Amino acid sequence: MLKRILFAVLLIAGACFNVIAQSIKYKSVSNQDLTYVLNNLQKRYVYTDHKTLSIAVYLVADQQGDVDAPADCKAPGSIYVAVSEVKPQQYVYKLNPVCDPKFVNWIKSKKMYKIAFSYGPAAKRKTATIGITLKKLVVE
Longest C-alpha distance within the chain, in Å? Predict the structure, then answer.
C-alpha cells in the first residue's frame, strides 16, 4: 500500500514539474521596423529550391504615409525580400515604396532567381523584374 501511495505522489510531482517547465512566456518585440511589417503584411510569396536558397517576398501596405511613396497614390506599398541559404546566412531587402504593388510571377534564370511585379495607378501600370542572389538584388 505504501509503495502505491509513494508511486502516486512521485507521479503527480513529476507531472507538476513538467507543467511548470513548459509554461508559456512572451516578450515584447522592440524592433519598430519588424513591428510595422508584421502589422501591415498583405501577401507573402515563397520560393525554395532546398539546395541553396529560400526566398520570401512580402507585400506590405504603407499605411504610415511613407515620405518616399508617390504623392498621388491611394494604395502605396513596399516590397520586402527575405533571402536565406541552407547555411545560416540571412538577408532582408526593402524596395522603395511604389503605388499598389502586385506580384506577377517567378522567372526562371540560370544566373539568379527573379521575380516580376507590377506597380502604379491602374491606367499607368508598369512591370519591374528583380534579380535575387543571397547578398544583393538587381533591379531590371
Answer: 85
